[in-house]
Amino acid sequence: MRGAVVVPSHAAGVVTPAYDALTTDERRRIADEQPDSFLSALPADTADIGATDFAACRATVDRLVATDRFRHRPAPFVALYRLRQNGHEQTALLCDLDASAVDAGMIVGHEHTRTEREQHLVDYLREVQVASSPVCVMHPPRRGLRTATERAAARPPDVEIDDGDLRQELWIVDDPATTTTLLEAARQVGPLVITDGHHRTAAARRFADEAVHPSGRRLLVAMFDSDAVQIREFNRAVTPLDVTPSEVVIALAGVGITARELDGPEHPQDPGTVTMTIDGVWWQLIVSTDVVVPEDPLAGLDVSLLHELVLGPVLGVTDPRTDPRLRFVPGVLGLDRLAAEADGGVGFALHPIDTHEVARIALSGRTLPPKSTYLDPKARSGLLLLPRR
Questions:
Q1: What is the per-residue pLDDT for 28?
Q2: Residues of the chain whose pLDDT is less than 50?
């Protein structure tokens, strides 16, 4: 990689929170309270985003560079990136891969992408001409890469950020011998499965076709050991609801699902369990033994059955990728947030899908329903600035 690294003394004010879990109002508040936040340099995921918005992102990047929030590194480098949260620790190799790795099957996803969002991100790269948000990928555990990573990260980190919830540590590695060792070990890990950043991956691959410089044909990835990755659920909210709660319960019974009223909010404790909230009341959904649950690993997942048996037949959500009534709520935000998003409608809480099941589905060339997984913790934006031209 070639580019710039956030200046340690400014890192806490520049590096973003997990922005895809923020509401529009929360993004605005952070931008107002933290003018150096790289959040203002990132495009919102809205249908009406356009050239003016991308120009504003470019202006933020230019200002941060001009005010020395980033420092250019003259030598090629890779980076090691460690996340610590609630006793959990995971370390990634941050590197730039050739975007053609997507075509070669070395980087595989498990979700379909929206063409409109892809195009927005291509337009963003054209205007802003930098990458700072790593695509998170996971790979099978490999001793060679783990050993090389541990050795390179044995010294104090170059950048440290601790917000009380998440501790981030970054090591810049520009020693040619160590860089070569890390990259050679990384080449031995096999196909990489995307855990966060399907749209960024697709956009980078499209942008590579028009790039005028080799830097534009690269994809910034954070390579995590799959044994260390934590995948959380995306819950669902459907609003508005044009039937009464009792009519929903009756309709569920009609497709073979019993709704048992709960004493209060309850998170599903095991696979095969889904909870539902309507009008402040929580229910556990139980699939009747008369319903034939597919043996196919993908079709038998809770999220697949929810779409197949409930969202479509009962609530009329025919296309989960485009239906404006359907919203995806990260499980990390909690059940109170799900209930708030489901106000005037219905919400569904799911159990996370096992990491190895996600990898198995992706490597078989199949896709999960939209927004089935949420990586936590995930790589943040604003640590690096890599040119894309």
A1: 86
A2: none
In a domain, 357, yes or no: no
Asked if residue 187 and residue 52 are part of one domain, the reply reads: yes
Q: Are 239 and 345 in contact (CB under 8 A)?
A: yes
For residue 176, tell me if it sits in a domain: yes
63-74, pLDDT tens digit by residue? 999 999 999 999
Instruction: Locate 259 and state its tokens.
Output: 């709704």
Residue 334 belongs to what domain range?
Answer: 234-351
- Total domain count for the chain? 2
**Is 288 found in the same domain as 148?**
no
- Please name which of 371, 243, 361, 252 lies closest in space to residue 312, comparing C-alpha atoms: 252
Q: Residue 334 is inside which H or E element, if any?
A: none
Token reading at 53:
């918005």
Q: Choose among 194, 232, 227: nearest CA to 352.
A: 232
Name 89's Cβ contacts closer than 8 Å, sequence gap at least 6. Answer: 82, 83, 228
Residues 151 and 180 in one domain: yes
pLDDT digits (tens, 9 = 90+) for 322-358: 899 999 999 999 999 999 999 999 999 999 999 999 9
